[in-house]
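User: Here's a structure from my thesis project, written as structure tokens. My advisor, Dr. K., wants to see whether a designed sequence matches the one we expressed. Can you design one independently, without my sequence as a hint?
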């Protein structure tokens, strides 16, 4: 798909204080979708704890973990306009070992498409 991991080339992302930024180079026009998973929380609750922005030929994913522990992060990409055809780009394990009091992050604001 022409994309290259810039910041995290291994499947593990350390999130000091519950936060991380993951960067990919993206020379083509893509749409993206990122999903955060955690076994004790509903997926819908985690929907706004990951956001992304495209700046030039890079896409940056911002993660705010709602609590300490391990979370799964799936990043999906779509070429073209077919909204039903997102393909998995990569999976990460996002981990925060900070004290719970430091990771009570708020979700990102809701942004209409």
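Assistant: Designed independently from the structure alone:
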């Amino acid at each position: 798909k022409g994309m290259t991991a810039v910041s995290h080339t291994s499947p593990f992302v350390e999130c000091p204080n519950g936060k991380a930024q993951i960067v990919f180079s993206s020379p083509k026009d893509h749409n993206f979708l990122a999903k955060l998973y955690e076994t004790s929380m509903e997926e819908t609750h985690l929907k706004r704890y990951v956001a992304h922005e495209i700046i030039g030929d890079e896409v940056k994913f911002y993660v705010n973990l709602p609590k300490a522990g391990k979370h799964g992060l799936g990043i999906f990409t779509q070429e073209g306009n077919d909204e039903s055809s997102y393909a998995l780009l990569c999976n990460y394990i996002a981990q925060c070992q900070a004290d719970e009091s430091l990771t009570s992050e708020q979700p990102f604001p809701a942004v209409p498409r």
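When you compare it with your expressed construct, this may help: The longest strand covers residues 69-79.
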